[in-house]
Request: fold
Amino acid sequence: MMYAELTEEQSSGSLRERKKLATRRRLRRVALTLFAERGYSNVTAEEIAEAAEVSTRTFFNYFPSKEAVLLSADPERLQAVRDIITGAAAGLPPVEVLHQALTAWAQEVTEEVAELGDPADWLSRFKTARDDLHLRAAQAARMEAIERTIAGALAERLGTDPDLDPYPALLAVLASGVFRTSLAAWARSGGSVSLEHLVGLAFQALKDGLPETTSLRHALGGGTDRKDHH
Reply:
């Protein structure tokens, strides 16, 4: 009897989670479509909620702002990145720790896009939304928050004071830059090059000292093979 009750309770909880996930995906689909059609600055959270056939209150239960609907902007994910940084194996170099954290982030974002449908289609809408100047301004502030969180986690891991030691902040800026440029390159490729691969190439370039010959430059078919510059 107890087994049946537990099973029923677990089933009910699972159903609730599936419904929540479906609502979250629907809001994201609708938002990206509206952003692509009208431009990010011309769409409100209320309009997203209406198009998704939910209340504005429901929208804000899932996302703190319309910017958060976009990939990589969820506050929960930033906390997960922090947890990976502080919980990584002792003695692991900071750059390796950041590589692990951002690889996990890249995997989650990739899964989200795959769940939305055709990756090329949704990444095209995502790219269009990110081209909006108002969104870029909002995301600049978001990047500062990300960098502060990463710097704080690194400082905690290293046992240092981030107000006196600029090293954690420098690494945090590099990490956020890696993810931002990788995300943008991934969108431009329409998903033909994996986000995880781009993040990996970027970190390898950092480890190598950012040489001109880095493989990252050729990831999307760009770069140059010229040996001399004038």
Observations:
- The chain has two domains: 1-69, 71-220.
- Residues 226-230 have pLDDT under 50 and may be disordered.
